[in-house]
Records
---
Amino acid sequence: MKFRYLTLGAALLAGMPAYAHDAKGSHGGRLGDAGAYHAELVVKDKTIEIFLISEDNKPIDPKGFKGVAIFNSGGKAERITLAPSEKNNLSGTAATALPANPKGAVQLTAPDGKTATARFD
């Protein structure tokens, strides 16, 4: 009887996904789920870049998308407008320098008007 429970417990543990700390994207940024998309957040000083990735890990053309990043900066929430850039991403500039791993969210609006939110804690 104990062997049956041990076997069941081992099978359940084997089926669980491995715990990973802050997955990194192909541009070195943090990944967040945003509905049907993955969003890779790259922060460089005042610049925020969001690279959109499909569920099958292919880049998504950001034309027609828009977004707003809301991050906690210096104890206050800062809203940063994001727009498509020539680097095949959504980009925006904050008023002040952001930490390398800011906490907040990015709200995306697709060309069809559907919205999705990626959280970065």
---
Amino acid sequence: MSEPPSTPTPTGGTPEPPAPTPPPVPTTKRGKPKKPKVQRKGFGTYAFTAIVVIAVAVAGWQIAKSLTASDEPKVGDHIHAALGITVCGLPVENAPEFENQDGTETKAGLHSHGDGLLHIHPFTEEESGDSATVGRFMDYGGWEADEDHLRLWDGLEVSSGDPCPDGRTARVRWSLNGEEQDGNPSDYKPEDQDVISIAFLPDGDPIPEPPADVLAALPKPADTQQG
């Protein structure tokens, strides 16, 4: 019986080892190669990613807000702005004098001396900076003024869409230093020597300025030295 032939040996060397056998390819019952499994991300992964994105967005918003926020007027500052209000073209009397927040004995850092001026010298941090608004002045006096409604002293109250005596429909409008503005006048934070006009007026009619005596008093308010 003859022996099986051996693998030829290269001249001057040892026999080469046989080539490794590749691992078997997984197949289905029908003999087709199986597709590799893809690990899918679970709900927890997406939820965590969403939380991180929201947290970053909130932090960015807070940083931007802190950079744009103003701390003026500060506690102890003393500034003034003129405020004139007209209804259907007729001037409303100056806001009555008040020193305390409506219905309390708490001093109001935004108040009136009955001279048509907003007297703004905050006593607390709560009413300083961006909180020293026309809306806070109105609230301290017990009144309201927003983009659609005025509720003033002496029971005067009007809303956008109400008619004036001439039958024309009017709405709440306002201007700052002679320029008509959009939005809610109560959100505005006055700066020193501002001239603010709030009017219930038909569209197209010019917004009147505050009375001449109010404008004359603005540069040198009587209480500047009194506090």
---
Amino acid sequence: MNSQGEYVGKLIAALGHPEPGTRVHAAWVLGELGARVAVDSLLKVVETCRDDPELLAVAVESLGKIGSDAAIHPLMRLSERSLLKARLAAVHVLGQWVDRQEVRDALGRALNDTSALVRAAAAEALAPWQQAAQ
């Protein structure tokens, strides 16, 4: 394994670190690196983390930076059931897949979210598609 691969491996391992700040930083760096090998580990964070909105939001943002289609369904679920910061991040990131009907449907449901921030983010994410459809 080369030094970049070793570094990414250590960052992936750090997603399970007991210190919350370390987990958040690792998730952020993985996104900045565009580390496709980290997608499964970041998805695991998204699917299992329930009590750390910062980690959830950063993992979502990193998945968006990496751009893996494997993130679509987990992010759609997260956009409907999670802490506000994570829902907001999920809606923002889902906007990059607005050309997919299932994503537009999820963003449409987000237009009814209890948070005005999420509703506004969903409207913003849908705007390019609505303009193109006119």
---
Amino acid sequence: MKSNIRTILTIFAAVISFTVISSCTNTKVTSVWMDSKKAGTTFKDFLIIGIAEEEHNRRLFEEQFATQLKATGVNSEVSYTLLTQGTAINRDTVAAAIKGKEIDAVIVTHLVAVDKETVYRQSMDYRPAYGYYDGLYSYYPHVNSYVHQPGYYTTHDVVKLETNLYEVASEELVWSAQSRSFAPESAKEVIDDLVKLVIKDLQEKGLIKSK
């Protein structure tokens, strides 16, 4: 019985450790809206627009989005080849850029805010209690020694983005999503995670279909 308890607690400790590591950075879609009148509409060719202060991040986002769409069999074009750096992105410039092309939808992603979030973390100085399970009076002092260790506060960036999908023919907003990335290590990390989540939701709602 004692052996089984040791095994269970060892596995539990490993799971807790993995959860803490894997959840240090994450991107989640916090809200999604879709025009119900567009249910059943499927788009086949996209223009990808990333609005960013740094041109490098714009290109990184657009290329990653186009690459992942291509992997699903959906056509797209990146805007930085059509709307070069310094070009105002508005109705007229976008309409001129896609004139004569088969693009039927435009996806635009922009930064909403970068907030700070402070998190209290309990001490994780866990030491498996091997040898302490033989009695209550040896186990309790060992566990009590780290359970009551003081925790600490950490402050992290929270990146909030908005992604919108517009229909070219009607110029109407069809789909919109807000995302939240907690403590990202790089812009690439946010982009990779966001693009996967956006494409997944668009597929689930039937707005794009894999070939």
